[in-house]
Amino acid sequence: RYALPFTASKSNSSAANFDFASSFFPKSLWIDTWLNICSGFNAGGQDTTDITDTIVSLDLTLVNYGAKVLYITNPLHTPRAPYFLDRRQKTSGYSFMVGGSIQRTRLRSRDSILNFKDRTVDYIGPVEGASYTHLFANPLYFVNITGLLGEYLSYQEQKGKFGYAQNASIKAAYGYIGDDWAWNITLGYEATI
Fold it and tell me: Higher pLDDT residue, 145 or 58?
């Protein structure tokens, strides 16, 4: 996936975004890789001299990249079909998934507005989840839901501190896979605590 750079009003934020992700499904594995780059953020503040709102442009860049590998425990089920539409599942089914992930998040500030110049946090840990695909009476129509939970040990380089983080993600797809054409609607949500 690729997100074109976007802009918003100066009262919010004006940022450029590049987002790339890839998924591979060799045999009973699911391998995800990703790269996210965001830069050009605004911060709101208040000027105490004349009580008017001010907008400060930060020269801040956020880079996040990593990889996740999951083992799919049921060889008759794959979360690939509902999202890539290149295979058809014959019956409704589910699978549990176990694996691990490693990623790095880096913040870089090139101005003196923030109290740091560079922050890097590395994450590594196990990931577990499940996927279920339901085929309707007409088996060409399907709905899929996939949920993953990661438990991560984190390390912040600049402070030399270890920490703990959790990451939860959920994906859903609804669609049709026919002989000549296919379509789907997908939704996804991810949060790190």
Answer: 145
